Amino acid sequence: MDSLTTAAARALAAGDPLGALNRVALREDPPALALRGIAMAQLGEYSRSRELLKRAARGFGARETLARARCVVAEAEVALAMRDLGGSTRPLLDAAKVLAARKDANNAMQARLIAARRLLLLGRLDEATALLNTVDAHGLSPLLAATTALVAAELALRSLRIDAAEAALARAQDAAMRARVPALLAEVAEARAALDRPAARQWIAGREHMLRLAEVAALYDSGTLVIDACSMSLRAGPLWLPLARRPLLFTLARVLAEAWPGDADRATLITRVFRIRRIDETHRARLRVEIGRLRKIVAPLAAVEATERGFRLQPRKAREVAVLMPPVDGDADALRALLADGAAWSTSALALALGASQRTVQRALADLEAAGQARAIGKGRAQRWLAPPLAGFTTILLLPAALPLA
To answer: Residue 202 phi/psi, 5° resolution?
Structure first.
């Protein structure tokens, strides 16, 4: 590189994007385009940044594989910041292999961490864990060490391994202090705060109270039959039964659990499960059919007994039945949890993360916007969605594809 590009690179490393732009703003050669792209990303101009980085990658061509791979990694990091989660991670992982082969260990590590964070946002926790296991944390720079520990902490939090999460956050804190990057220190502090915030509400035998993440983990370990409205599943000890694809049956199980140790009358079940007010014999017949389906599915965990008034949930081994609910009332909880990270999401990225159709997400966003809980910026394909964070709560349990405890 010439003296101007070298000076621009040093300015970027020092956190001075304007200083870097002053040196290369009018240049169109590939190194200058790459530096301009990184500077624009640091200034929050992500769309312009991606355009410049793509031009730089094309300009470097097939022969300059190292420089091109670095552009691929930088563009992937910008895409992650934009919450553009479409496409495959293969180009990024291929770039990581090129960088590792050319002895650029730091950027190769950065590429794997970007891929792991993308998988985390998509809820593909097994793949993120496998990818993180390929990262050798020894000898990393403080910045990369902190980032690696943060990814490990989020994986642990998402699977409610609280001790592992606390250890990873301690490593992240130590590395972030050595890196002296304010944004990184703030990210670590936010992750640590999630441990102390209410994560869910517990309803058991007619009483409700708030639980933190560690208390949720303890509830799962207690052997209590848990009807989890955060992930739409049932759990008792090691047995885990997802019902996200059977929402009607989950609602039926939840109503029965809320009435435990008593029974739920037929009118209440029909009204809440089928969402109707005028009940006739056809609804009673439909209730019997759905009760039969629920009995079959939950048989390893509980029995559903008929009573004179209605039906009762009877756990097989658990001593108690508890309902675990999101920390705040409202529909579209997983959508709000994703938006609560403060980043701007596209509807396509939200649909990909939630495993839902884009039209379903658009309807849910319209409802949140009408309730003042989300807002759109931009128009057309450039439109993104934002929401204020849920102050005082953590949304870990509401994120998609949360794993059961091993």
So the answer is: -110, 130
Please give the single-letter amino acid code of residue 179.
A
Using an 8 Å Cβ cutoff, are 220 and 387 in contact? no
In angstroms, the CA 35 to CA 58 distance is 14
Give the model confidence (pLDDT) of 229-282 as tens digits.
888 899 998 888 988 888 899 999 999 999 999 999 999 999 998 888 788 889
- Asked whether the CA dihedral 254, 259, 263, 265 is positive or negative, the reply is negative
Q: Which of 195, 201, 198 is nearest to 326 (CA)?
A: 201
- In terms of C-beta density within 10 A (0-12 exposed, 13-18 middle, 19 or more buried), how is residue 338 classed? buried
Pairing of the two strands 321-325 and 225-228: parallel
Cross-strand partners of 240: 235
Take residue 185 and report the two structure tokens written for it.
């220190």
Same domain, 351 and 230: no
User: CB of 332 within 8 A of CB of 368?
Assistant: yes
CA pair distance 58, 36, nearest whole angstrom: 15
Pairing of strands 233-236, 264-265: unpaired
234 and 243 in contact (C-beta within 8 Å)? Answer: yes
Distance (Å, whole) CA 37 – CA 71: 9
Tell me the CATH number at 345.
1.10.10.10
Helix, coil or strand: residue 199:
strand
Shared domain for 115 and 239, answered yes or no, is: no
Range of the domain at 368: 333-389
Is residue 327's pLDDT more than 60? Answer: yes
Asked if residue 341 belongs to a domain, the reply is: yes
Residues 6+ apart with CB under 8 A from 130: none
Phi, psi of 74 (to 5 degrees): -65, -40
Pairing verdict, β 225-228 and 233-236? antiparallel
Q: CA-to-CA distance for 313 and 254, rounded, in angstroms? A: 10
Average pLDDT over residues 6-35: 88
For the stretch 28-52, pLDDT in tens is: 999 999 999 999 988 888 889 999 9
DSSP reduced 3-state for 148: helix
- Report how far Cα 136 is from the mean position of its chain's Cα atoms: 24
pTM here?
0.78
* Total count of domains within the chain: 3
pLDDT averaged over the chain?
A: 86
